[in-house]
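Ex. 9. Protein: Queuine tRNA-ribosyltransferase.
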Amino acid sequence: MSRTCRMSFELLATDGKARRGRLTFPRGVVETPAFMPVGTYGTVKGMLPRDIEATGAQMILGNTFHLWLRPGTEVIKGHGDLHDFMQWQGPILTDSGGFQVFSLGAMRKIKEEGVTFASPVDGAKVFMGPEESMQVQRDLGSDIVMIFDECTPYPADEDVARISMELSLRWAKRSKVAHGENTAALFGIVQGGMHENLRMRSLEGLDEIGFDGLAIGGLSVGEPKHEMIKVLDYLPGRMPADKPRYLMGVGKPEDLVEGVRRGVDMFDCVMPTRNARNGHLFIDTGVLKIRNAFHRHDNSPLDPSCDCYTCKNFSRAYLHHLDKCGEMLGSMLNTIHNLRHYQLLMAGLREAIQQGTLAAFVDAFYAKRGLPTPPLG
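Predicted structure tokens for Queuine tRNA-ribosyltransferase:
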């Protein structure tokens, strides 16, 4: 079976373990390291597509599980695909639904064939396996398709993590077969919990099957940060150098920096958008809580070093007022800023890697926050 992947990856520069690269798709270019805003239901909450683009985001994430349940692929296919439905013309990565099924807890039953669960929309009994996930992602017109896997819970002892990882490998094979001649990129997902030997067995198994890129799954699921860093200390560097590396569901600005330092190319997380709606705004010195009373009379911009629409036009006092009144514009302006902050961080990391000055960039990043630079493992 001949298949040519419509995604290409070019490694442009390195600085230590960190990588500066470029993903190219028919729909556009994504400079890496890259952060993808999350558009769970076919929308990045509170953001018009043009506003997402204005933040500097080049690729977004859509959620297979939620879009499959509502509105359903028939509605989306009636417009063409997810790009046409939501009017985002850049590349889209879709997760497989595995993490959302994992999140259902007692509402789901896992078997070799796949997962049966009660729909969180209407309670109906629903089944999803690798074949169903691949078909939904094909219908969505995804540019990067993620395999269907089981997200290993935390904590998980070695036996539990091994059984979960081996099931995910079998599902990875079925995902590859079901993906067939689809020219969208297909990414494998490394599982194995916090156990290095299992992570390496997972990576070897995925390499044997053959994927267009690889992701690190099963992190940011409740483990202490030092456990996550421990995995990142050894895993990215052992992943194929000629393929993109994606850290799923992570995280805070500090987590992005630490991931990039260790060789990760791609990130996604709801944190900048969710925190924006809760009035937690990211600035160079850390987090600003806009609902605190002392912002009521503060006429200064949110972040003088930021060039986003919010910072160029509105005061902290106005954003505080919108938050206190529960006005939807407050969430929208906050989201514009947080997403721009993340994109400026990624652009700074890319430039530093290109120039060979990453260590100085990282030192300055932490110094602004009054923190020491963490050691590299």
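Check your answer against this statement. The first strand starts at residue 8 and ends at 15.
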